[in-house]
Amino acid sequence: MSEAKAIADALLTRLTAFSGIAADRIAWPHIAFTPPDDGLYVEVSFHALEPEPHNIGLGTPSRREGWLQMTVVGRKGDGVITVLDMAGQLADHFPAGATYQSGDIKVRIARTPGPETPFDDEGLIRCPVKARYFAIA
Residue 81: how many CA atoms within 13 Å on its side-chain side? Predict the structure, then answer.
């Protein structure tokens, strides 16, 4: 398994353990999804930065960093509190220092995620939560 695949697998597997929202209300990366008409859902995207050498020398492991972005989406007329509550629950699900593993790769959450400022988007409220990670592989 490639390092990028293992990292994504570890983080997405952790997200599947989140009990705060039904699995059919999660828009997974690059999988067809129809947003529900009646409430909250979460859009997920995986962002990997270019690997950097961890040590000086050829053949040394690389430090891999990036973030798993989980954007809570709600209807504008329902207010921001429900969106912020869900975003806070997602942030709590990825605590700073937690380690998740897939294959031989251990992925660590680099710092405490927190809900970012919610914003309006064509009748929807969106609130991103970024779980920043790093791995040595």
Answer: 1
Question: What is the pLDDT, as a whole number, of residue 48?
Answer: 87
Q: pTM of the prediction? A: 0.89
Mean pLDDT along residues 110-123: 93
Q: What is the CA radius of gyration of the chain?
A: 16
Dist. CA 131–CA 13, nearest whole Å: 14
Three-state DSSP state, 36: coil
Structure tokens at 76: 């504008």
pLDDT tens per residue, range 25-71: 999 999 999 999 888 999 999 998 887 766 666 666 888 899 999 99
Question: How far apart, in Å, are the Cα atoms of 17 and each of 3, 48, 100, 104, 113?
Answer: 22, 22, 12, 20, 17
Give, as one character, the DSSP assignment of residue 3.
Answer: H
Q: Which amino acid is at 123?
A: G
SS3 for 4? helix
Residue 17 CB coordination number (10 Å): 8
